[in-house]
Structure of Kynureninase:
Amino acid sequence: MTAADLDAADPLAHHRDRFVGAETDLVYFDGNSLGRPLKVTAERLAEFVTGTWGGRLIRGWDEGWFDLPLTLGDTLGRVALGAGPGQVTFGDSTTVLLYKAMRAAVAARPGRTEIVLDRDNFPTDRYVAAGVAEECGLTLRWIDVDPAEGVRPEQVATVVGEQTALVVLSHVAYRSAWIADAPTITALAHDAGALVLWDLSHSAGSVVVELDAWQADLAVGCSYKYLNGGPGAPAFLYAAQRHLTTLTQPVQGWIGGADPFLMGPTYTPADGVRRFQSGTPPVLALGPVRDMLELVEEVGIEAVREKSVGLTEHAVQLADELLAQLGVEVASPRDPALRGGHVTLRHPSMKAVTERLWQRDVIPDYRDPGGLRIGLSPLSTSYAEVERGLVAVREVLAQLG
C-alpha cells in the first residue's frame, strides 16, 4: 500500500489535526524526544492563567491543585501503565525520581551489595546508579548488550543472585527501541530476592505497559515524549502498593509527610505513594500532560500501539527500499513485537545527514554509533510524513556520496 492508502485507511488519522504544526510540511521524526503540543493546551493554559490561577488564587490548592500529582497519576496508571489507583505520582525530573526510587530500593534490601544494569541503558540511569552505588558502598554489575538489540532474560539470569539488591533496566531501549521482556525479567529478579526498577520513558503513551500484571516494584518515566507534556514536563513514579508501607525515599520534603500542614518538628512519611513527593506540586506544568492523557484515553492505548506498529513497519519497509542500497542498516528489531515507537537507521554519515536534514525541516535525532533515530509519535504522525522524511534521507545521503 502507498502512504496515501495507509493514511486513508488509518482510523486515527483525523486526530493529527489536534496537534500544533501537524498541518505544515515539516517532517517531525523526534516525537520520542519531545512530542508536539495539542492545540487545546494553548487554550487551557491561557484560561488557567486568567481564570483558575488569576481568579481562584491560593484557593486553588484546596480545589484540586494539592492532590493533582496523585489524581493525574491515577489517570496515567489507568490509561497507559496498567496500574491500579494509589501507585503513581508526578513531580520532579526523571533524574530525581530515578534517584529517589534507587535509594528507596537498595535501602529495602539491606546487606545486598549489587545493582544490576546494562551498559547501553540511558546515560542518566547509569550515572544515577553509579552515584547511588558510591553513596551506599555498592557495586555495579553490568550486562553487555548489542546496541541494535537490548537486554534478554537469559542475560539477566546469569548476573542476578543473592547479592543483587536492585535491577535497573529500560523497558524500551532508547537507542534501538528493543522491548524488554518485562514480566520474565521481573520474575527472575524476584526469584533472586531483588527489586526491579523499570524506566518507562520510551514506553509510556507508545506501547502497552502492564505494571501490576508484571508484578513490577518501581517504575519511573518522563512525560515530554509520547505524553506530550512539553519541555521539562514533570516525570512520574510508580511504586507497587505492596511496598508503600516500607519504602522510604531520601529527599524528605513537607509534601511527602503524613500530615503536610502539621508543620511538625520531625518527618513521618505518608502512607501511600505521596511519600515519594518532596516539594510543591508543579501544577501549571501538569496541564499539558492531562490534555494528552485525555486523548490517549479517548483513543485507547491498544489503538495507539497498533498505529505505532504500522508507522514503524512503514519506516522499515521504506528504509529497505530507499536506503539499503546506500549502505544503511536497520539498527532496531525487525520483529514489531520487539520494537517500540522508533526506528534507528545506521550509517557512518548519519551525523552529517542529521545536520543537513534539520536545514530542510526534516527533524530526526542522532545517536552514536552512526544512528539516525526516526521517532514516530502515533497520534501526530502520518504515513505520508514518514515517506517524505525517508526520501529526504536518501537525497542527503546521495549528496554526501
